[in-house]
Amino acid sequence: MRARPPALATRRNLSSQLALYLVFIALLWTTLTAISHKAPDLDGMEELVWAASFELGYLKHPPFPSWIMAILTSLVGRPIWLTFAAGMFSSVLGLWFIWKLACEFLSQRRAFMVVLISSVSIYFSLRGTIFNHNTAQLWSVTASIWLFYRATRGGRLSSWLWLGAVAALSTMTKYSALILFAAFFLYLLRSAAFTRKQTWQGLGLALLAYLLVLSPHLYWLIANDFAPFRYMDGSLETHTRWEAYKELLKFTLDQLARLSPMIVALIALHIWNRRSSHRVNYDPGADVRQARRYANAISPQDKQFLLWVGLTPFISTVLISAVLGTRLVASWATTFFVLYGFYALWIMYGRERIQLRRLAVIVIVLHILMAGGYALARGPLAWHAGRDSRATFPGPEISAQMQQVWDEHMPGIPLRVIVSDTWLGGNIAVHAGPQVQVYIDADPAASPWLNLPKDLDCGALIVYSLQTRGAPQPALAALYEQAPIKGLRAQRWSSERSPMIDLHWAILPARPSCAPDQAR
After folding, report:
1. Can you tell me whether residue 502 is helix, strand or coil?
2. How high is the pLDDT of residue 4?
3. Domain chopping of the chain, boundaries
4. pTM score, two decimals?
């Protein structure tokens, strides 16, 4: 029996350890968040509501994350924990593709260290529990970067083909993928890759695959007058240039805070190394070799790749925003820092086995502290303080109250449609049953899963709250006024210190056209 080659044995061993690590952090964050939260984040609830049907596009965003959620809800229903699990799956899958990229030009241990450092970024950890279009894009962005690296190094046409397909899925997750493509373009320009025939052939194949995968959504965009772009344009608006600069400063400081756990991990590793007796070496030559920075072993070409592809998204966004005076939101930069774990190699050195073990201990402790602290702050502490936190929102209790109201006035007819905003209506719907859908703000364009007016034949429950959202949208308010049955209920947000939630409800009665099969 032939012995397994040592290099292969190491590769398989570290791959399995990496898989265990990724499963650990996914379960840690998902479990603690599910225990401490009574409701998901607003974006997570939005995905649960949008998952009511497969659409080629939605009013605010492209459709791919909602497709994923639709598949998941068809399998397990609409439990609150599903949004946390879906977000963390996208996060750890993104880390897996960082590992794949790192293994292209680093040793297995150094690649593992890059993943460990990257994983404590707030975007891969705390905000990884929020399944929105930013977090959902982590895997496709990192996969695109890995495939782009392979395509530009090996020149295999299959890598270009896969790059085009995955890049299209990234675009169908969030249009900010175009910023990454700009980084790819600048790198190709800087590396003189455009002078090679193979590059043009590969780009042609990638573009073909990109357009083929994206074509259904492109058709929808044209048919719907590019509605998500109008929403995006409105999101970027600021009132004054000075306001835009203040937003830009806040945006930059927020990014520093969200990357700070990576800095903490490196500082802790440095302190551990300084205090450790393992710093003693057996000969001067070994000491010189061990003291070399890990980045010294990276080729100039690979360093160029990491710097151009890794730094361009953030720098270009900040510069363009400063010139145009646009507004920026911190979470929009979720995918801008996926390569920043590699930059730690510029300051790291020492025996790989020892450094990997120490860094793993530090990072695991950080994850436990962050996940535990987040769960404690968002759950028990927020409840006792009476904060109006989304995590403590009494969705099950409000849903039960509204179901009782419906049953009192519409006996024998099951509740099918909630007319409300996404947050309040979603919290009622997910606890009321899989058949209940949300008619968002009484806006047909925002609720393409409804067949209107037919789906209102068997009535609808209208609900809004000044406490949770403020005045309802005009269409929702108008429909509320038309309803013949109205009332007001209240629900405490959490503890006795918390505010009361006003629940203005109304009922649209069933019409004579309500068919028996609809009423069931």
Report:
1. strand
2. 40
3. 26-375, 393-519
4. 0.93
